Amino acid sequence: MTTRYTVAPHEMELVAVRAQGAGGQNVNKVSSAIHLRFDVRASGLPEVLKNRLLALHDRRVTRDGVIIIKAQEYRTQEQNRAAALERLEALIASVRTTRKVRVPTRPTRASQRRRLENKAQCSEVKAGRGRVSD
Q1: DSSP states of 73-88 as a string?
Q2: pLDDT tens digits for 14-25?
Q3: Which of 39, 41, 91, 119 is 20 to 30 A (C-alpha) from 131?
Q4: CA dihedral sign, ordered 98, 104, 110, 116
Q5: Hey, which bits of the chain come out as E strands?
Q6: Beta-carbon count within 10 A of 18 CB
């Protein structure tokens, strides 16, 4: 079951800013980078996903529960907008799957016996390494 949750456009804020780094004169006059801000608590996502997103140890999630993504790898605003939206979807998809609960198991009786036999054998070997008395 792969339910895909879509984020409504009014729930996120997309702002065009100037990109950092090399790029010549173009970088100083064109706002091609995109800042995406998404407030997790105010979103329409299910509570389970909200809690998992807020529990993430990710530098993109602030203490206030806002996800901030900056996309600036492309030269055009449209490509950077698409890249930011893809990253947001990937982040939501990463918390969508639930891990199976680990059921603790016990070692078998035979494995316990083998461990103790091996331990006794190592003990004999080490005891034989002592000083030889005359």
Answers
A1: SSSSHHHHHHHHHHHH
A2: 777 777 766 666
A3: 119
A4: positive
A5: 12-17, 33-39, 66-71
A6: 13
Q: Would 123 be classed as within a structural domain?
A: no
How many residues does the structure list for the chain?
Answer: 134
Whether 26 shows a pLDDT value over 90: the answer reads no
Mean pLDDT of the chain: 82
How far apart CA 45 and CA 52 sit, in angstroms, is 11
Domain that holds residue 19: 9-96
Check whether 74 has a pLDDT greater than 90: no
Residue 101 covered by a domain: no
Digit-coded pLDDT (tens) for 106-129? 999 999 999 999 999 999 999 889
Flag whether 85 is in a domain: yes
CATH number assigned to the domain comprising residue 90: 3.30.160.20
Q: CB–CB of 84/36 below 8 Å? A: yes
Taking the model in full, what pTM does it have? Answer: 0.63
**Total count of domains within the chain:** 1
Cα gap 125→84, rounded to integer Å: 63
Joined tokens for residue 57: 């140890």
10 Å Cβ neighbour count for 98? 8
